[in-house]
């Protein structure tokens, strides 16, 4: 539990020092998420409920978002460290352009392990009250939000890996706390 808060605090410090200043990291009691619908890269309907039973790192991003582009390789590295049957990095693209553009970007940077979905109307940003991109939610196996980072983070770092391991072990976070990360 302390490890997760420590991880989020460390990321907040790193975020505040980086070129893409982040807004506060929010850590709190697990809270239910509203239904979130999106589509596969082939256009088939999908939703967040399909991932219940797994730890989910839900990243809202777009190819035109410079911090998102910078963050993608570390999300790919995070996924490489975990069994996708247990933990999934769900990269939800807000791009209005077709899936070809999203896939071309992923190919260009060598990202191959992420579960990539599309939300061309950016409905998830409104539903999840995400004020900007990238926004990443940590979701436990029961489908509850346990943490949120608004801005870029190093997802391949030891703090992020430790946080995911804690969630996989079923550890939850005590109380709501805020760690300041820089401008917004």
TrEMBL record:
A GO term, aspect molecular function: antioxidant activity
Entry keyword set: Redox-active center, Signal
The keyword Signal is annotated on this UniProt entry: yes
Alphabetical list of InterPro entries matching this protein: AhpC/TSA, Thioredoxin-like_sf, Thioredoxin_CS, Thioredoxin_domain, Thioredoxin_ResA/DsbE_sf
Thioredoxin domain sequence ranges: 27-169
Species of origin: Marinimicrococcus flavescens
Protein name in UniProt: TlpA disulfide reductase family protein
Signal sequence, renumbered to the chain: 1-22
Keyword hit for Ubl conjugation: no
């Amino acid at each position: 539990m302390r490890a997760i808060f420590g991880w989020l605090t460390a990321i907040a410090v790193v975020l505040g020092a980086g070129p893409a200043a982040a807004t506060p990291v929010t850590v709190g009691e697990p809270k239910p998420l509203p239904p979130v619908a999106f589509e596969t890269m082939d256009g088939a309907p999908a939703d967040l409920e399909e991932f219940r039973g797994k730890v989910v790192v839900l990243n809202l991003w777009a190819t035109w978002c410079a911090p998102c582009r910078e963050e993608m390789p570390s999300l790919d590295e995070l996924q490489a460290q975990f069994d996708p049957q247990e933990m999934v990095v769900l990269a939800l693209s807000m791009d209005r352009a077709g899936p070809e553009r999203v896939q071309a970007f992923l190919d260009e940077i060598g990202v191959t392990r992420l579960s990539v979905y599309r939300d061309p109307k950016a409905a998830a940003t409104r539903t999840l009250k995400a004020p900007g991109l990238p926004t990443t939610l940590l979701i436990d196996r029961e489908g509850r939000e346990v943490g949120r980072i608004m801005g870029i983070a190093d997802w391949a770092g030891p703090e992020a890996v430790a946080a995911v391991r804690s969630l996989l072990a079923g550890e939850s976070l005590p109380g709501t706390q805020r760690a300041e990360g820089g401008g917004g």
